[in-house]
Every structure is written in structure tokens, then in C-alpha cells.
Amino acid sequence: MKSKTKLVINIMMVVLCMTCLYFNSCVQKQDDQKSLTPIQTISNEDIQTKIEQWAKEQNEKKVKKETQKDDADNAHDKQLEKKWNELKAKVDRIQQQETPPTDTNTSMIQEESINNMSSKTQEPISPSGDFQSNDEQDNVLKRLQQWVRAWCSKDIDTYLSMYDPQFRTPVKMTRKQWEKNRKKKLNKKFIKVVLSEVKVDLDSSSLAMVTFKQDYQSPRYKDSTIKRLILRKHNDVWLIIEEKTLKILKSR
After folding, report:
1. Strand pairing of 207-218 and 192-204?
2. Is residue 101 within 8 Å of residue 110, measured between CB atoms?
3. What is the domain count for the chain?
4. I need a labelling partner for 98 at 20 to 30 A (CA). Which of 76, 90, 161, 216 fits?
5. Which strands, in side-by-side order, build the sheet including 221-234?
6. 0.70 exceeded by the pTM?
7. Which phi and psi (to 5°) does residue 19 adopt?
8. Helix intervals (H) in 97-161
9. What is the CA radius of gyration of the chain?
10. Tally of CB atoms within 10 A around 211
11. pLDDT tens across 145-171, in order?
């Protein structure tokens, strides 16, 4: 009897101990969850706030950078447009020389303007040959030589690189459409281009007008035209900003 009683007591003690251990573990687990949950919540909120703040700062920097770039581009465009208008005005004055004005003062002003413009006429330009770069006029002519060489060799990448990013494409034609059209026209069995009666007029150290007679020949087409190029110096490189045919002398 005593042994049975002792056994029951021992079992009850074991059950009680296990119950106490289970209860303590549950309480500890709840305490851990209570202590961790606020930390995780605060950490997530802090990270989210920092991400939003960083994104806002980056967006502000981007907007500021774009605004500065737009302002710089607008200022550059205005300066280029001013030089463009000045060059056109000088071209008009040169053309007016064909009809001598009756006003003596006007004649003197026009004569002085022409004398102030640097002009140079060269021998015919063909894909072969080269120029010595002694001054800016020679640099323009050398660039013209490279343009003819790339055209005749059908080196489309070099040819297109001769044109300024702000090149005035034909009306209702984007730069991409114009480049696609030029690639198509350069896809011929052979191309021959010879320039003669070349004349360079420097309006400034960064803007030049070149007029010349162009003899063009391909397998199915041939013509002679009077053409004008306007070039501007960008990063020490002369680039074509306008290309215009002034007169068609003959074609077939």
C-alpha cells in the first residue's frame, strides 16, 4: 500500500514539474514575441522612410540636372542661331554686290564687310589627295575631303558622323528617317563625287560656309550642282549643320 502511494505521489510530482516547465516556456515565448515585435516594426518603418527619402533626393537631383542641361542647351541654341543669322546676313550682303548700290555710304559698308570675311578658293576636291592644315580654312577643307572620301567609299558610319547632331534635315523628315534615306542612297555599286570651285567663308572661329560645284555620278544617275554647306566647330571638330543644293546645272 505504501509503495503504491509513493508511486502515485512521484507521478503527480513529475506531471506537476512538466506542467510548470510548459507554462514557463509559453510565458517566455510570449515575452520574446512582445520584445521582438516592436523592434521589427520600428526597423521596417525606418527602412521604408529612408528609402522614400533617398528616392525623393534622387528625383530632385535628376530634375535639377535636367533643368541645368535644358538651360545650357537653350543658351547654346540661341548662340548658334545668332551666329547663323549673322552668317546669312553676310551671305545676303555678298549677293547684293552683284547690283552695285547707288548710296556711297552703303557701298563702303558692304565692301568693308566682304573684306572682313576670310575667303579661299581651292582646286577640285576628289576622294584622293589631302590638305595641309595650316589654318582653320584648311581644316574645313580637310574635313570636306574626308566627307567626299567617306561618301565615295560608302563608309556610312563615317559619312553620317560628319553631320552635326543639330543638322537641319529636310522638311517633315526626322534625323532617323534622314539617316535611313542616306543609307539607302549610299547602297550603290559605285559612287563618284568631285568638288570644284570650292570657296570657304569663315564667319568666326566656329562657323563656316562652303560653296562649290559638285559633280556626282552613280550607275544610274549623274548630275552637276552648285551646293552650299554650313559647318560649325564642335569640340574642335568641324561638322555639317546644313546641306543645300542651290542650283542644278545638269542631270541625267
Report:
1. antiparallel
2. yes
3. 1
4. 216
5. 118-122, 192-204, 207-218, 221-234, 237-251
6. no
7. -65, -45
8. 104-116, 136-152, 156-161
9. 40
10. 17
11. 999 999 999 999 999 999 999 999 988
Between 144 and 41, whose confidence is greater?
Answer: 144
In a domain? residue 243: yes
Range(s) of the domain holding residue 221: 120-251
> Taking a C-beta distance cutoff of 8 angstroms, is the pair 248, 220 a contact?
no
- Copy the grid coordinates of residue 124: 577640285
Question: Which grid cell sits at 174?
Answer: 526626322
Say which residue the cell 549673322 belongs to.
86
CB 240 within 8 A of CB 208: no
How far is Cα 124 from Cα 214, in angstroms, rounded to an integer? Answer: 9
Residues 6 or more apart whose CB falls under 8 angstroms from that of 189 comprise 218, 219
Decide: 118 and 95 in contact? Cβ < 8 Å.
no
107, part of any domain:
no
Task: Evaluate whether residue 5 is within a structural domain.
Answer: no
CATH code: domain of residue 180 = 3.10.450.50
Question: Which amino acid would we find at residue 225?
Answer: T
Q: Does a structural domain hold residue 211?
A: yes
C-alpha 117/C-alpha 202 separation (Å) is 6
